[in-house]
Amino acid sequence: MAKLAELSKQLKKNFGFDNFKGNQEAIIQNVLDGKDTFVLMPTGGGKSLCYQLPSLLMGGTAIVISPLIALMKNQVDAMRNFSEEDGIAHFINSSLTRQAIDAVKADIVSGKTKLLYVAPESLTKDENIEFLKQIKISFYAVDEAHCISEWGHDFRPEYRRIRPIINDIGVAPLIALTATATPKVQHDIQKNLGMLNASVFKSSFNRPNLYYEVRPKTTNVDKDIIKYIRSQAGKSGIIYCLSRKKVEELSETLHMNGISVLPYHAGMDSAVRSQNQDSFLMEKADIIVATIAFGMGIDKPDVRYVLHYDMPKSLEGYYQETGRGGRDGGEGQCIAFYAYKDLDKLRKFMQGKPVAEQEIGNQLLLETQAYAESSICRRKLLLHYFGEEYQEDNCGCCDNCMKPRKFIEGQELLSLVLETILIVKEKFKAEHIVDILKGNETSDIKSYLHDELENFSSASDEDERLLHAVIRQAMIAGLISKEIENYGLLKVSSAGKAYLKKPHPFPIVKDNEFDDEEEDSTVRSTGGTCAADDVLFSILKDLRKKLSKKLVVPPFVIFQDPSLEAMATTYPITIEELQNIPGVGAGKAKRYGEEFLKVIKVHVKENEIIRPEDLRVRTVANKSKLKVSIIQAIDRKIALDDIALSKGLDIFELLDEIEAIVYSGTKINIDYFLDEIMDPDHIDEIFDYFRTAETDKIDSALDKLGEDDFSETEVRLVRIKFLSEIGN
What is the pLDDT of residue 149? Predict the structure, then answer.
């Protein structure tokens, strides 16, 4: 057993550090003592050192199981920089040639190599298992261990096989490390790795230098992001998107607006991806736009802001990604753009997966939604999610704490919630409890006869969002807990039972409201618009109405409201400028543009308006390569699901692309596909609906046509046919 003074000496000798951070010393000593070790430490806390130093002090080779090739390469390069011997650290993964793998094995056999990084997929290969059986293994380290848990944010099946493979190779002490794990995930990791008796070292998840904010995601989100980036000139930032397609689009838009930016996602050529990562680390680019494939283990200390274009699929993912900001203890702004419809889209993508996986995914999305919409301190909510209590009432470093809050008295509602959880024997989730209180006669409520309970419909007048806020804030107050094994089942704690016996005032903070932007004019006109010039917007709407009567087409066929709003903000006066307006392509500009341009020119001249052309957000040409290839594929009458598959899109994303094409004025013909999959009478009925509809909104169409008779996909397909034939 190494003495503490000796450990400090070895730290200085091998890594040049004078002192250990946080729990590092105790963790390293535990590993050296041959005990299983579980490490929960936030990003930037120094996890890697917890297995790097012991590997140098122990006999044999430490096996580090790591999820990403880029992460392995970084870690190996770092270890070689600290050592005089290049063979001190190696990795084996799919990027190596046979010759390179043989060279690595030779170094290991000779005793030079103290650290061997392997991907979980490489660990499962028979030839690697047979080789590792022949060498002395000091210990195993499982990095990014949350990947083991199906509740973790990056589920990898191979991670679930680690324990049996270790048993096959030869048992040695085990250290598991993660920067993000809820109590549920922690339990799942330890159980799967067979280390329930491990010593657990948990550092605080609080990053006091990070500022958290959630902003509504509007139709102008690209413009909002560009404006924000320009206010942070010269600073490094990461922007996370959920899809590769959005990474490419946003990166191109930012580049066209003079911003130093590069994309990063798993679908790119690996050499280009590595080059872009290095360019960001070496400050040749200020910003990287990326999917979650970027950042795990990337040690860039001065990332000053992390933006989320889309809300992530889980709070684990969100915490890990925001943790890449301000790792040097300096400024780190974490801003997420939230729209409920994004989460709804994620739920649709889960359809078709196993029911258990859908259930898990839905629970994680509900936590993300709760974080976005809640008005309580974001730091308090995040830390509570990870099993840590934050005692301060106001962190002073999140959007909710920095604005006045609206409190209402929640004593009566809280008592109802606690009573209902106990009445149903603590066997149901929050959604079910809310359905009982609201009086929602769902199939579950009826099958359990919960519509016969005394508390059924006892809070029917209350907003569902408020009831969820009561449950959430009661959890943070320790009155309610969620069961770990059956994720989501609500339990009343002893403090909650005491509260029921002796209720007292319980102030509740009402949730933030994020109303999705409506696309139809009937809704927008009542609540104001996003146009900078309301007068011009009204004039343009009147012109559109006259044209629609003259041409006998619905107004939305000519231009949608967002297009008119953009015209009333940027004042286009030429056909070229008009084509830069969202939803206006060359065809639509040519067909309808002249009359709108005349009106705008007169308005600009009469009101002596200085046009904000210099501030215009330059957008990528509407007919991008993807759109052109989609049009060509439709011309060749390729089935839409086959087109989606070939372009790496799901059917919803493909429909988004096709809708953008027809809204911009390009005529396409998808009759060949409709005739294959739809009844002719259904096509005619939907088509006739849009002839007289006031709005092109899908929800309105489904309400009128009947959701039982028509699907959203069918209505969207016929809307594309209608817009193309009638408008273009």
Answer: 75
Same domain, 37 and 174: yes
Mean pLDDT of 568-594: 82
Contact status, residue 49 vs residue 95, Cβ threshold 8 Å? no
- Same domain (yes/no): 492, 566: no
Residue 634 lies in a domain: yes
Phi, psi of 138 (to 5 degrees): -75, -45
Give CA separation, 460 vs 247, 434, 446, 447, 463, in Å.
43, 10, 17, 20, 8
pLDDT for 430-469, tens place per residue? 899 999 999 999 988 999 999 999 999 999 888 888 898 8
Quick check: is 479 in a domain? Answer: yes
CA distance 24 to 41: 10
Give Cβ neighbours of residue 607 (< 8 Å, ≥ 6 apart). none
Choosing from 454, 486, 509, the residue where a domain stops is 509
Locus of tokens 């590993």: 31
Query: Which residue type does 530 have?
Result: C
CA dist 54 and 62 (Å) reads: 9
Sheet of 332-338: strand order equals 210-216, 332-338, 303-308, 236-240, 287-290, 261-264
For the cut 70, the answer to whether the pLDDT of residue 320 exceeds it is: yes
Same domain (yes/no): 661, 709: yes
Question: What distance in Å separates the CA atoms of residue 649 and residue 250, rounded to the nearest whole number?
Answer: 17
| Domain end point (choices 460, 487, 509) | 509
Dihedral, 382, 388, 392, 394 alpha carbons, nearest 10: 0
> What region does 169 belong to: left with phi over 0, alpha with psi -120 to 50, or beta?
alpha
Please check whether residue 269 lies inside any domain of the structure: yes
125 falls within a domain: yes
Same domain, 173 and 72: yes
CATH number for the domain spanning 716: value is: 1.10.10.1390
Please report, for the domain that includes residue 308, its CATH number.
3.40.50.300
Answer whether 0.85 is exceeded by the pTM: no
Position 516, amino acid:
D
Domain ranges, residue 91: 4-202
286 compared with 559, residue with greater pLDDT: 286
Indicate which CATH number applies to the domain containing 591: 1.10.150.80
| Interval 65-94 mean pLDDT | 76
* Number of domains the chain is built from: 5
Which whole number is the average pLDDT over 479-490? 76
Answer whether residue 308 shows pLDDT above 90: yes
The answer to whether the beta carbons of residues 521 and 541 sit under 8 Å apart is yes
Mind listing the pLDDT tens digit for each residue in 632-677? Answer: 888 888 888 888 877 777 788 888 888 888 877 778 899 988 888 8
SS3 of residue 316 by DSSP: helix
Do 225 and 192 belong together in one domain?
no
Shared domain check, 503 and 546: no
Burial of 333 (0-12, 13-18, 19+ CB in 10 A): buried
Asked if 375 and 470 touch (Cβ cutoff 8 Å), the reply is no
- CB under 8 Å to 491, separation ≥6 — which residues? 421, 426, 480, 481, 482, 483
Same-domain pairing of 597 and 499? no
- Burial pattern 417-443, b for ≥16 Cβ within 10 A else e, equals bbbbbeebeeebbbbbbbbbbbebeee
